[in-house]
Amino acid sequence: MREGIMKIRHNVENVSSISAFANSRSESGGDCKDVYFIRMLGMNASYPEEIRQLDRTLSEQASGGQVRYQRLGELPRLVSSEDVDFYAGCYENWTRNGRKALELKNSGQNETQKELLGAACSEAVRLFGQVTPHASASMEKNFAVKLMFWADQAVKELMCGYKPENVMKLAMANVSKKQEYLFACFMTWMGVDVLLLQYQSDIDAQLEGLNLSKKIPLGAFGACTLPAYEPHASAPAVPPHTQRRNNRPAAARERRPLEVRVAGEDRRQDPGSTRPSDPVQRPGGQKRTASAGSIQSQRTVSGAGSSRGGGARRELDFEELAQLASSVVMISVHDKKGETLGNGSGIMIGEGGYILTNHHVASGGRFYSVRIEDEDTIYKTDEVIKYNSVLDLAVIRIDRRLRPLPIYAGGRKLVRGQKVVAIGSPLGLFNSVSDGIISGFRVINDVDMIQFTAPISHGSSGGAVLNMYGEVIGISTAGFDNGQNINLAVGYEFITQFVSGFTGQYGK
Prior knowledge:
This protein is of the alpha+beta class. It folds into two domains: 7-242, no CATH class; 279-308 and 318-495, CATH 2.40.10.120. The chain contains eleven helices and 22 strands. It has a seven-stranded antiparallel sheet with strand order 14-13-10-11-12-16-15. Strands 17-18-19-22-21-20 form a six-stranded antiparallel barrel. The radius of gyration is 24 Å and the shape is elongated. The two termini are 30 Å apart.
């Protein structure tokens, strides 16, 4: 934390049980505050009752104004374009003022809260870079925007009317993702006692190495149904302006007008200057049923990969190109209940399980099922590693060693008439292969795209567009529903920068 803000000391006294956490009180004096950051590992026979008692004790104390308490299940997903725009603006303002004071909806006119928010966010972003090899500026921004959203929306009961001397307690269950754990760290830097109920699994060794939370073994890991958390009726009311104005999925809202121009050399955009957002509108303004999780979007496709290594570069015949379908996957997108929302495609880009797809494919789901050609195993994941809604790109990860596709290095300029092959899963037809040519170059909402004629259909989104050397030159991203064989792909320049850091060897 910055000098002159507030000094946080973690776990200065021994807290070794859930009841001890409930009854502990953080000492606060001057610019220093003691907080508790505890991970309870596994569970015992009395576990559900202990959680019930935790809620009861702290809710009663909250009603008397002694503490503020909240128990979170899942952190909310950032899907609203209004929220994205607002918190991206908060990020830009925070960056412009030297990453000092951070103003959010719930901070109001509280200058102390703004200062502490800015300092805590700065520390969280610093640690994100420490535990994220090859983190780009866009990855950092996406994390910071999500962090601000959670701080403003997920913990309103703690942050509304904030005073650093308040006794504030937060419980979270089964925190495993890097960003979620850093959010928990962020809350401790705001002076909040945090209890992580890790009854299914613990954080990974890299996060453990930060040495911020204290682990307390309770028993073996396993499945458990926690009692429902019911906030106390007298919990602080959330001011109307802090409430989300639109809870509909991003794909169901009307999107901004589409601008299409012929691409020119002066229209190149730095792929590193990114922000998270709702799925971009696709050419022609035509709506369609979801290709994967996006209920109303255009027909789409995408792809990217890393070198297979070795051998001289030569043109392949169509049979050889078709064999590269083994590095293109089919992605099924599921809601919280496990129902299938749609299907899309993806491209292996890194041996360590990384798969490139479209943002609109990944954005609507709670988890994903990934199928690989000639395998019976279906790999399930909820890991969305990185996304950029403007480019319509996202990276997900499965727990499997992959054989990535090489990305075109750009030795020669792409030209109209150049032969291409598209691989994807249109209409759920796993790994269909089609050929065509590059028919033009377009600028869609300030993004340079390749127009090509290889036929694609709904579900091809996220698939590969290859040159005759078997290299990814684009990821199919959009098509005109009212046109004939008019399809678009995000080009290799953007893909190369977007996937930087994910194309290394397995385990790195």
